[in-house]
Design brief:
The structure holds 2 protein chains of 2 kinds. Chain A is mainly α. Chain A is 76% helix and 3% strand. The chains are: A mainly alpha, B mainly alpha.
Chain lengths: 287, 285
Amino acid sequence: MDFFYSYIALAEIYVLLGLSTNLLVGIVGIFSVSQAAIFGVGAYVVAYLLMNTAVPFLPALLAAAALCVALNILVTLPSLRVSGDYFVVTSFGIQLLATAIFTNWTAGTGGAAGLPGVPAPLIFGQELIEPGAFLGLATAGMALGCLGFWLIMRAPFGRLLRAIREDELAVAALGKSVLRAKVSAAALAGAFAGTAGGLYATFLSFIDPSSFDLDASILLLAMVVVGGARTLAGSIIGPFVLLALPQALALIDLPTSVAAAARQLIYGVLLIVFMLFRPQGLLGEKL
Amino acid sequence: MLWLHLLVNGLVSGCALGMVAVSFSLIFATTKIFHVAHAGVYSMGGYLTWSALRHGAPEPLALLIGIVACGLLGALIQKLLYERLARSGATHLVVLIASLGASAVLQNIIAGVYTSNVLRFALPWADRTVPIGGVLLSMTQIVTVGIGLATYAGVMWFAHRTGLGKRMRAVASNPFLAEITRLNPRDVHVVVVALGSAIVCLPGALVPLDLGLQPFGGVPMLLTATIAMIAGGVGSISGAFVLAVAIAVLQNLSLLVMPGEWSIGVTFFVFVIFMLFRPRGLFAT
């Protein structure tokens, strides 16, 4: 049963993270492969605060989210001035830079060995160690994120973001600030990713750079693409489908080195196949 | 004299990086596709050449096999992926995601077949050193500089002196006009992606002579190359090559003040500076 709870909790954390990617890639139409890096920053900040200071869980989570908001604005700002292809470079650059920092800044991140022993979240005097107990927190986090996403998409701001994707020039001609809208979207995406990171670190109680590298960003993109971009339903179903995949793969007896490559290979194939034959994913709208 | 060594190393790796930048620039300027899968083709080139050597092919033949295979791989990617996507009216974003997928597929095929451990080219001549002007250069470095400069010259000659090269530049500068004047942009795209992929096999095989083969080495290389292309000005072959050399020199000289793990930071810093002050690049056309 714990195994099943873990799967659900992890998928819920990835739903929260997927919302961040969906917002940028699906809604605003900015290609991003650096959300895993922001996710990582959230995870490391929460882990560091819980392990080295007396800051309780919720304020630590809030601090991580706030930092990720600032960070996401900072990294998107320079390249928003220029065309989309420059953003691709920024995005890859941020991702590789973040991996370099996670791996090499041993004092803060534990380096390649990672940080073991992140304490479980303590909420209202309850320590959420068992996956079943944590599930409540993850569900609450996901529900809040989904509610926020849904409300924003219904609001004028959501329409503005979608309009920017369709025709940036027309939006600017109507007197709306495209830059401000994009920066707000980036900030929101940062908050989602940071919170997801904090939950991830406390749930697994161990983090290392491999959870936040380029491959993780590709997995995340595959989740959004397979589930379906632009819709809430797509963001929810994607992580559940893709996280079930490694379990299915575990049934085939592959050596560990090949298994990791095979998993990543499947994510790549999924990206290609869905883009070729079903760009709207399972439950999304056409990209 | 450490700085002189680093300067020379930078110039040499700049020639290798320049080949990646020039080949990417050819593809990007003509097809307007941000060909992320180029990183996978780069790695594939190295591994195929290594395999050919392993099976007893002499060095030039092994390299030739790698080049031809990469060219075919590029043509396949253009034909089976990009052309289909273009026909179904895919947006830029969709093409990018597909390209990222293709890159992941290529790299993980390599990781699955050859494992992700570092493989060594054991070539007896590669580490032999020759003193030139007070600096010891390895044969690998001399060959890299020679092939790098020859490739740059060859691409310049191709783009400006041959009929196909002129057609390529015509398609790059105005696809619509090229279509109605029957320059067949679609065929040109296939040729250009094949050519770029063939070229990237050269650094793909030369860089690992020093550092060994790794399935995922292509991504940082490609990122640096695209930064060189943007800083040099999109569409300028010379710009891409010169800036690649400059960035590689800067990366190497930065070793004087900080450890090598942070060289990606130096590269990215160059990009941010250009974004802020000269987003169209130095040699913009």
